[in-house]
């Protein structure tokens, strides 16, 4: 087995990325305080060709050296927009026809392993096929007011002693699940 060099991977240029068809998903960061987490989310969003990242509240915006350190240029390829209030971002997304999930542990949440069934139910009901996922602050999670506005909540089941995952790890897992189901749907 031969480990591929970067040149052998035939990756898109930033210009090609901007023109390419995107995963119908917007990632919303609700008051994420770590610039390294923000950068890591940009990098994951680039990997799965996410439509955009919405940065809200205290979440830092590019250009920023600490974001770049983990984004490695993902902040240049993925479109982004800043909102002072996360509620405004969610309201805009819903007006544009997005189904908004908060990623949070709440009563009645949909476990991530049931995402496929949730998406199928929405298709059957004629709900738009565009989605947004809201990831919360490293300590407080998604604001309750944002949870209240959301169309649903997704939760990653966990089986250890800790009750949460790092926000950038969570984003990678959730974005991959959407990519897996939405890209399979297209084939």
From TrEMBL:
Molecular functions (GO terms): RNA binding; RNA methyltransferase activity
Transmembrane feature ranges: none
Lineage: superkingdom: Bacteria
InterPro entries hit by this protein: Alpha/beta_knot_MTases, rRNA_MeTrfase_TrmH, SpoU_MeTrfase, tRNA_m1G_MTases_N
Protein name: RNA methyltransferase
Biological processes per GO annotation: methylation; RNA processing
Residue ranges of every copy of the tRNA/rRNA methyltransferase SpoU type domain listed in the record: 25-175
SUPFAM superfamilies in the cross-refs: alpha/beta knot
Keywords, alphabetical: Methyltransferase, Transferase
GO CC terms: cytosol
